[in-house]
Design goal:
This protein has helices spanning 9-31, 44-71, 76-107, 113-169, 171-185, 189-208, 217-231, 256-266, 303-316, 344-348, and strands at 215-216, 238-242, 250-252, 276-282, 288-294, 325-329, 332-338, 340-341. By secondary structure, the chain is an alpha+beta fold. The chain has two domains: 5-162, no CATH class; 170-348, Heat Shock Protein 90, CATH 3.30.565.10. A five-stranded mixed sheet has the order 2-4-5-7-6. The protein has a three-stranded antiparallel sheet with strand order 1-3-8. The longest helix has 57 residues, at 113-169. The radius of gyration is 36 Å and the shape is rod-shaped.
Length: 349
């Protein structure tokens, strides 16, 4: 709300003198007394009108500032009605008191009812114009904010789609697999064919399921098995131990295990003396699927794979109230996927 024109210092400084002079000219027009135009900037009345304009504008601005928190929760019709009544009541009351005080203490006699009515009618019209300008500016700002939010969401979606496409391709895995394949072809054609089958299975899985929001854990495990066997050609000390029982009703975002396993392998030192064993199990309460392994981080981490955790975190926030988390406790690393379970009875219905 502070961005609205009524709160800008320039508007608050210039609006009162301009309106005050206009009110003074309008009063002269109503009273048909244009002889006072010669003394427009020397007469006290014009400065009184400017002062009354300042009181009226600031009273309405203060009323809006105080009531903004409550009015923002109301419907449009209710907000317009309440705001008009509140701003006009406060501003006209203060203007009436100021005029009465000026006539009593400065002029020396009480203002007539007709003169007071003229002042209140003019400043009431200013109040209506002020509210009209406020609502036009307010809803224009709100419309612009909505458009900006839509543009931001569209941009985030495009970035997410692009990142998702890159994840489907996974160029690092592709190039490394092709390099291993070239070496294997020189010694063992049968193993090279196996590598091609595993690599094709991984990318086939990604392309087939790239537009699906969720997929069963059973299908995800089949793709993960292909990935493990493919990575075993380079890291024979890599192993995945599956301790999950019934996987039929468990749903994951497609590629969750593939992205995570690939990231673990790229950021972990693996050797015959320090094998990498990844354990997969359900946490107590069946709220999380957990990937657990012993920490043995590389000196230089693979940044692209680490960013996958942030993307998974944002993605799982749409499907589960439980967050996607990574916990490092001692020498162990725990990566927890919130489970999205589908009730078979509902599906049958």
């Amino acid at each position: 709300m502070n961005r609205l024109f009524i709160h800008q210092a320039l508007f608050r400084i210039l609006a009162a003198p301009v309106l005050g002079v206009m009110v003074y000219l309008l009063i002269l027009l109503i009273n048909n007394d244009f002889s006072e135009l010669e003394n427009i900037f020397s007469g006290v009345e014009v400065y009184v009108c400017i002062g009354l304009a300042f009181i009226s504008l600031e009273a309405m601005r203060f009323t809006l500032s105080v009531s903004e928190k409550w009015l923002s929760k109301q419907s449009i019709r209710r907000r317009i009605t309440v705001q008009l009544l509140a701003t006009l009541s406060v501003s006209l009351t203060l203007v009436a008191l100021a005029i009465w005080a000026y006539y009593i203490w400065i002029v020396g006699f009480a203002i007539s009812t007709n003169e007071l009515s003229v002042f209140l009618a003019i400043y009431g019209s200013i109040g209506l114009l002020y509210n009209a300008l406020f609502f036009s500016n307010f809803y224009l700002n709100r419309e612009n904010t909505l458009l900006i939010q839509q543009e931001r969401k569209l941009r985030e979606k495009l970035e997410s789609d692009f990142i998702s496409f890159r994840n489907d391709i996974n160029p690092d895995l592709l190039y490394e697999s092709l390099e291993n394949l070239i070496l294997t072809l020189q010694h063992n054609v049968d193993k090279a064919e196996e590598q091609i089958d595993y690599l094709a299975g991984i990318y086939r899985y990604g392309l087939i399921n790239r537009h699906k929001e969720l997929i069963s854990l059973e299908e995800e495990l089949q793709a993960a098995d292909h990935l493990i066997k493919l990575l075993n050609y380079k890291h024979p000390q890599l192993n995945l131990l599956n301790a999950v029982g019934d996987t039929r009703n468990i749903q994951l975002i497609p590629g969750s295990l593939l992205v995570t396993i690939d990231s673990i392998v790229r950021n972990t030192l693996i050797s015959k003396e320090s094998p990498l064993v990844i354990r997969l199990y359900l946490e107590e309460g069946d709220e999380y699927l957990v990937l657990q392994h012993t920490l043995n981080d590389r000196l230089l981490l693979h940044q692209d794979s680490l960013q996958a955790y942030d993307r998974l975190k944002r993605s799982y926030a749409f499907f589960s109230e439980n967050p996607f988390v990574q916990v490092k406790a001692g020498k162990e690393n725990y990566i927890k996927f919130p489970l999205v379970q589908i009730d078979e009875e509902v599906n049958h219905e």
